[in-house]
UniProtKB/TrEMBL annotation:
Residues 151-216 form the HTH luxR-type domain. One of its GO terms (biological process) is regulation of DNA-templated transcription. Keywords: DNA-binding, Phosphoprotein, Transcription, Transcription regulation. Gene3D superfamilies: 3.40.50.2300. The keyword DNA-binding applies. Residues 4-122 form the Response regulatory domain. The lineage of its organism: Bacteria, Bacillati, Actinomycetota, Actinomycetes, Kitasatosporales. This is Two component transcriptional regulator, LuxR family. InterPro entries: CheY-like_superfamily (IPR011006), NreC/VraR/RcsB-like_REC (IPR058245), Sig_transdc_resp-reg_C-effctor (IPR016032), Sig_transdc_resp-reg_receiver (IPR001789), Tscrpt_reg_LuxR_C (IPR000792), WalR-like (IPR039420). The modification 4-aspartylphosphate is found at residue 55. The keyword Chloroplast does not apply. It comes from the Bacteria. Coiled coil: none annotated.
Amino acid sequence: MTIRVLLVDDQPLLRTGFRMILEAEQDLAVVGEAGDGLQALDQVRALQPDVVLMDIRMPRMDGVEATRQITGPERDGPAKVLVLTTFDLDEYVVEALKAGASGFLLKDAPAHELVQAIRVVAAGEAMLAPSITRRLLDKYAGHLPSGEEPVPDTLNTLTEREVEVLKLVARGLSNAEIAADLFVSETTVKTHVGHVLTKLGLRDRVQAAVYAYESGLVRPGAQ
């Protein structure tokens, strides 16, 4: 199955570079481009892409609001959003993840990482790079709870092991790393993650990580 990709970035040169990389892959097809969020919304409705490669800082409508509308309850199609950010980690990335993005990728990431990220997101998984996630959340520690606030009642629906798994997800660990840490199988970890998402009403492990920090369950910088 061919994965249909929409490129959204206000820099034409970057879009051209991304297009060259993606069109070299047999299972990827660039179906359109947009230079801002408003154009992106029109293109999503017209072209029905599977994945939207979304820049954050753009004129007229930024990537956060565009992501919110593309992935919101009144969405017109199944498009997933993969956010592009700079090396310094854009201050709006957390908001984009909360708005419904399925993950984020650095603009200077190697070509194979870009291709793999699109495939992962298209498959319905979250692109949550551990090292970037930890750095991102630590960077914005001042905007998140200190850990001294009361834990939300919704966390009481989780078992002790599910809470452990949620904490490790928030630290950016992969399923394999969590399995090794807890001495269980990857299949067991996937089951626990699934239960966490269902009980907390979250879409994917990206939202789970943000939830863990915002609820105060995990403190930025904690190991």
